[in-house]
Amino acid sequence: MTSIENDLALIRGQEAAIVFERFDEEQAFLLGVRLREHAVRDGLPIVIDVRTWDRALFFAALPGSTEANADWVRRKVNTVRRLGRSSYRAALEQNTPDGLFPPRHGLDPKDFVLAGGSFPIRLAAAGIIGCVTISGLPQRQDHAVVVEALCAHLGLDHAALALPAE
User: Fold this and answer.
1) 80 and 120 Cβ atoms separated by less than 8 Å
2) Where residue 23 sits, what CATH number does that domain have?
């Protein structure tokens, strides 16, 4: 199995394991704060966005992040919403050198991007209702930071779900 195939299998496992029983404004705030505290502690220049499909519930821009990071977040969110999977999984599945969907998909690069850092918020009883997204680090690291925060928030064993170091 190639490293990409291995990563894809692990990400599918993450997506199956990281499931909320309930998700509301309070859950979004606590998750967002957890991500922000991690970013402040480690000096990460990221933008954080936690949302349901109808509205943003938490947003933070840390020192060193830029307007471009907020736009990357928007495009990653669109990708997760359209495909129903993490943006890093989509990026690995497509495996394009420029991070853009092939033209046959009909997904405008102004609105969609193949880059890690956005992870679906899945409810056990309802399916995917939103996502948590960061931007500002290399895509694998963006993905890893989000997964670590989700695992901590839900009390899951992060070590069992984490991707191996590159």
Assistant:
1) yes
2) 3.30.450.150
**pTM (2 decimals)?**
0.96
Residue 166 in any domain: the answer is no
* Inside any domain, residue 67: yes
HEC assignment per residue over 21-87: CCCCHHHHHHHHHHHHHHHHHHCCCCEEEEEECCEEEEEEECCCCCHHHHHHHHHHHHHHHHHCCCH
- Pairwise CA distance, residues 17 & 156, whole Å: 8
For residue 144, tell me if it sits in a domain. Answer: yes
Which residues have CB under 8 Å from 102's CB, separation 6+? 94, 96
Domain count, the chain: 1
Q: Which domain holds residue 34?
A: 3-161
pLDDT in single tens digits along all 166 residues of the chain: 669 999 999 999 999 999 999 999 999 999 999 999 999 999 999 999 999 999 999 999 999 999 999 999 999 999 999 999 999 999 999 998 888 898 899 999 999 999 999 999 999 999 999 999 999 999 999 999 999 999 999 999 999 999 998 7
Q: Contact at 8 Å (CB) between 148 and 18?
A: no
Q: 24, 52 in Cβ contact below 8 A?
A: no
